[in-house]
Predict the structure.
Amino acid sequence: MSTDLTVSGPARRTPAPPGRAPRSGARWHAAKRKRLAFALPAGIFLLVFSFFPLAQLARMSVSDVTARTLNQPWEFVGVDNFVGSAAQGSLFPTLGNTIAFVLIVTIIGLVGGLAAAILLSTSNLLSAFVLGLMVFIWALPPVVNGSVWKFLLGDAGLINSVITGVGLTQDAVPFLYDDRFALLSVAIVNSWAVVPFNALVFRAGILGIPAETFEAARIDGASRWQEIRYMIIPAVRPTTLVLAVLTIVYAFRSFDFIFVMTYGGPGVSTNTLPFLSYLQAFVRFDFGMGAATAVISVLLVLVLAVIYARSVRAEEANS
Amino acid sequence: MAVKSARNSRIRAFSLAGGAIAVSAALALTGCTPTSSGGSAGDSDTITVWHYFSDENQVKVMTDYKDLFEKNNDGVTVENVFVPYDQLNSKLITAVGSKTGPDVVVFNGADASALALGGALAPITEQWGAFADKNQFPEAVVHSLEDDVYAVQGYVNLLGLWYNQDILDEVGVEPPTTMDELNAALATVTAAGKSGITLSGLPQSQGEWQAYPWLTSFGFNYDKPEAAPLEDAFTMIQSWTGSGSLTREAVTWDQTVPFQTWAAGNVAFAQNGNWQLGTARSDADFKYGVVPLPVGDSGKVYLGGEGQSIGAFSANPELAWDYLEQTYFSEEGQAIALSGVGSIPSRLDAASAPEVTEDPILAAFAQSLEQNGANYPSPAVPAVSIADQQLVVGQIWSAVIGGQMTPAEAATKLVTDLEQLLAQ
């Protein structure tokens, strides 16, 4: 007996012919149970490793949890942790930093990804090599990536050597230690790390456009810019929406680059919500307050996740 | 027939589900089981030692301790496990929930209270009380909480002012002994096109550790924090960054980077510790020396260093104590740290050895210890506020060096924040 699991929902629910109902009903129930059996391990995994930690996080955010009480019963304190975090004055500036960070990463990540995809949408040896390099960059651990960029952006690093060498400025640019540049620098490095992924996805979308369409456009005298404006951009619009949400979520939860490159400094000028949460929970050992900040992040990401799910569903319906 | 088929399919479905659950559980358990290198293995002949040393010379001391203990105890294995500095405390405290952790832990001594409060350290009151050589150790290196001893420091680390003799000779400057002399020396050195001083401005505990001598030199103390001395200290630091004596890039440096920068040879001074002696010997290709930080009579220099303790869930606490007794707390073990990285022994007999008193570098640190040494952390800071206080001071120290805050703003904010923390 075999069951086609790829059959879509409505098809599976097609009523059985009269007279064969009892037997078909039993078979349908058996098939359903089997499907549930297959889904059970993933469900348990999700429950244990996703829902349980989230529930614990929510509980911790409304409890007094410190190094002393972490392994004891947690006292319920309501919204004290949220209020305390806001009262300390770090929450709202950090929220502002997070929004600026997300905007920079999303804009550069998407525009850079699309530009790279358009440039690499040809099938030749050079584009294959560059694509391979980009996958390598994408696969690099953020800690390694961040350390390399911290070195490159230092006063005596490659970037400043080039800038001062060609005479753009006399003094080194304070990429990571001036509050006007630090957040921007870390955000650009973060964007640089996400461009390869976006480029790969955009490229798949561009390669999906039939070659005949381009040929027809060229016969009609379309320029390269017109091809991009009127063919490529409309074709990748659904992909862009999905990638935008993924990039925003990626930027929103970014922690590693800030940890390695600035540790939130100078002062607190590159603190974002995930990093503030880390400082509260794992440096100050106020796990309750750290959880409260994390819950705010989760809620914001949850909104984006809903948008993502709806956009994916809309795209599937259209296709 | 239909009933049999349904039953068969049900059996198959349950078999599949059971198999899938078993595989999932096996995978999950494989990922969850503590490894021998990551926690207490439960093997009576093996002890794990967690530390955060990445410097080559400091790692060698750990290896020498391992060799020493294994040589003196047949069949015993010591596993040294590196945990990054920023992760060590959180790993120790979160491991308490699963009742795991190392047999021995070597950590920043200032964090002893936080770790003890978190239940990560085992009290060693009994072992310490029965230790024959305990009178060799000054009270300042024994970390206690609520009448229990939790950690002891096998050595003392403190900051001094390293200088590049070649640069000072070139510009005709003597190693400074007062703050005025230091400021004059920095001005002369900078005018000659050299860099003045390196230090760490990282916005965390390392920044606070480095800031403390300069803040106290203007009369600041944690017993009664006042804005005026802080503002004076911050004004001086910003005069250094303004003149180019100190690079603002220091806000991204931990304590290792500024010393390596100084050791490269183009910087006159480095505010750094005695533990860098091994690095200076191996990397500095110029004549160098150390003088106490010129912080005057009111200035204080923290007596820091790593605390050594037994993990709360050590599988073999007796062997762990033997390890501490025979390495960190023994005269022989302290001599290893002294020769390897220049750590000043905490034992009185080891500290009075000719290797310390006749070495000009270590003698300068010993002089600073005697004149300006202060408990780390300050006893005025409540145990529950130590982590907060270090972070807050480190962040403001970073903001001052980075030019993000004016001295007056920084001083006012720091006093406001500290008053809340000290009142807890």
